[in-house]
Design brief:
By secondary structure, the protein is α+β, with helices and mostly antiparallel strands. The chain contains 11 helices and 4 strands.
Length: 266
């Protein structure tokens, strides 16, 4: 859900927004369509748009039989996901960040951002991807692909331990306290996304069936502090790998918690 060191991803929805509005019409195979939807389109910059467009172009032009780069690019320019900077986190998404980093609910935004930006490259919640600017085009392209996979697999809903019982939506503290990271589930989500970074860099899609991926798995567990035995997880990750039309059609249904604005029903 978060891309750190290797990469971090988080996604977020505002209450009442559709999680997956479906793609816009798309027939451009020439990598000339670099327009993308932002979370807060009123607050943008030429530098931000230029960095994202360069990364989108790189993803589109990545040649492979499985189309991982191209389909990630297509998922963005057709509007399946929104892109913005980490500074433009919605208020709701900012609260999920505080939970993930175990910061106090009254932590000022600028103080929290100073901590978070040292750790991550990207974050996702719902259909929203937030990025930290300033890295190379290659790193940003990998981050976008990483986060798109989190959106495809609803990593934000899978990352946490199940919440028992119904909660009072008016009790914000109760809801925040209800979210607790499941190390095993979090590891599965991050391993899949980092595995695909290896594929984006040129490894075959089934590299996990051809060789041991233990070193990558251990690196991820150490990076995120997941208390897991990596040997208990298969080298070939489960879940959805390619964000093509078939992948989006196979996307699991939303968690749909009417009592939690973090997990709205579609």
């Amino acid at each position: 859900m978060i891309r750190v060191g290797l990469a971090v991803v988080l996604c977020a929805l505002v209450a009442g927004c559709a999680d997956d509005p479906g793609p816009e019409p798309f027939d451009d195979m020439g990598c000339t369509n670099l327009a993308f939807n932002q979370v807060d389109g009123a607050n943008t910059s030429v530098a931000f748009e230029a960095e994202v467009e360069a990364a989108l172009r790189m993803l589109c032009q990545t040649s492979s039989e499985h189309g991982l780069g191209y389909e990630s690019y297509k998922s963005i320019v057709t509007g399946r996901v929104l892109i913005d900077t980490i500074e433009d986190l919605t208020d709701l998404d900012f609260q999920t960040v505080l939970v993930f980093w175990e910061l106090a609910a009254d932590t000022p935004r600028d103080e929290a951002m100073a901590i978070i930006e040292q750790d991550i490259l990207g974050y996702m919640w719902g259909n929203r991807i937030y990025i930290v600017l300033g890295d190379s085009t290659e790193v940003l392209a990998a981050t976008l692909m990483h986060e798109v996979n989190h959106v495809l697999n609803r990593s934000d809903e899978n990352y946490y331990l199940p919440i028992d019982g119904m909660l009072d939506p008016a009790e914000e503290t109760q809801i925040l306290n209800a979210l607790s990271v499941d190390d095993g589930a979090g590891f599965r989500e991050e391993y899949r996304a980092f595995y695909l970074e290896e594929v984006l860099a040129g490894a075959p899609l089934d590299v996990g069936q051809q060789q041991s991926m233990r070193s990558l798995k251990q690196e991820i567990a150490n990076l995120y502090g997941f208390a897991v035995d990596v040997d208990e997880f298969p080298d070939m990750p489960g879940g959805l790998l390619i964000p093509d039309d078939d992948g989006w059609a196979a996307r699991p249904p939303s968690l749909c918690r009417p009592d939690l604005t973090y997990f709205p029903c579609e």
